[in-house]
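Good morning C.,

I know you're traveling, so I'll keep this short. The sequence:
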Amino acid sequence: MNISPELEALRRRRAPLEMQPGEFREIGHRLVDQLADRLSKLPDRPLTPDESPEDVRRALGAEQTLPPVGTDAGRLVSEATELLFDHSLFNGHPRFFGYITSSPAPIGMFGDFLAAALNQNVGSWRLAPLATEIEGQAVRWIAELIGFPTSCGGLLVSGGNMANFVCFLAARAAKAPWDVRKEGLSHEGRQLVVYASTETHTWIQKAADLFGLGTDSIRWIGTDDEQRMDSSALRRQIEQDLRLGHQPFLVVGTAGSVSTGVIDSLPDIAAICRDHELWFHVDGAYGALAAQAPGSPASLRALSDADSVAVDPHKWLYAPLEAGCVLVRDAEKLRNAFSYRPAYYHFDDQVVNYFDYGPQNSRGFRALKVWLALRQVGRAGYLKMIGDDILLARHLHQLLAHHPEFEATTQSLSITTFRYVPPDLRSQLGSVEVENYLNELNQNLLTTVEKSGEAFLSNALVGGKFVLRACIVNFHTSLGDIEALPLLLSQLGKEADTALRRERVVS
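The tokens, ready to paste straight into the viewer:
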């Protein structure tokens, strides 16, 4: 056979993406040095730059077209490092209190690097034997950490939304009294319905929408004064739906709401689900990991009675994004919801093949960073770090409750909510005019804090009040960071109050 010169040249192929070992080693060592230097200086720099979208696009050179030829890899890695550290928000900063996104564990960074180097597809055991076993062990360890049966099934997914989705679909397949996977959702006019409190994360709406039930299938259950699901209202709603011929199948309990960290009365919900043979799911993306931690609410222990739990290692296990975790009491329920076996699959049934347990066939090795961190610090280390976060959040609540310029509103797990109240308005709290003013003032203060780069908060609505929200899932945060926050907010609050009053006089 004649071989063309072009084909012959491929005997010694050198693709543009290749790196020789020496080049790879040099770039990698330089990157680690850059990261170590930048990360060590993180506490002393602004948490986020005060930049407009135009500023960021200009720094990137966003208008550039695709390069016609390549650029030196070492130069690109260094430039990307500098760009990212100069134009990013850092949730690893000790004064990042904004969302439930943790500081990344350094060993998790190494885990992602190693996983990328192997580039295994953890969809089938044959393609990733040790990675599959590591994922299984990590899932069991997470179950053990929160007090869920270690005989459960589970897998790692991208985050809380996807973990809840997987549990939702497992519940639908298990509790629909017909073969919903084959026949679809329409069956003799019966509507599948699901129950969630008004504080439930918006994943439930996405799930009802994406999986064909429609958002009208959600029964929104009101909450009590502490924003927990009203268990009596839940029972009444289920009984009403049964009388109307609907088909209840799933109740969602929340273990750590996004706004305030509230925990539903999980024991009561579990009892109601047992009475009506419904699937009891706990959205524990945030709070479940605190179930065994010192100072955590006793009601969290009842998640052990759930049929499924969603957990986010990239929240309170401090794993780098992305890492969500599905836990289902009966592993067979996952297979029943997701397994299909086309003729071109030839995989061993005697081992776990994760394409049978969730929606993905191609799956990255997310478990490695979680598994490494669990081994590095162990059960005691994690419970101590989570307990410390809770302790710091409670101390912040106490500081604000005793400060003349703040009103502390709620405190649960590691979330504290509060608002800035100018002292001369305290006696007028409750009046419509003053409440409207305080809502606007605290919105302005939130923006001012973010622009300052000194701290990062978010907000919540509590009893109609716009409040500031500080969430601590950060092993870098210290007592000094907590004590500095009221001082910073007092100063910025005064400035925001002065500016808003002046604006109102002028207008």
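Safe travels,
E.
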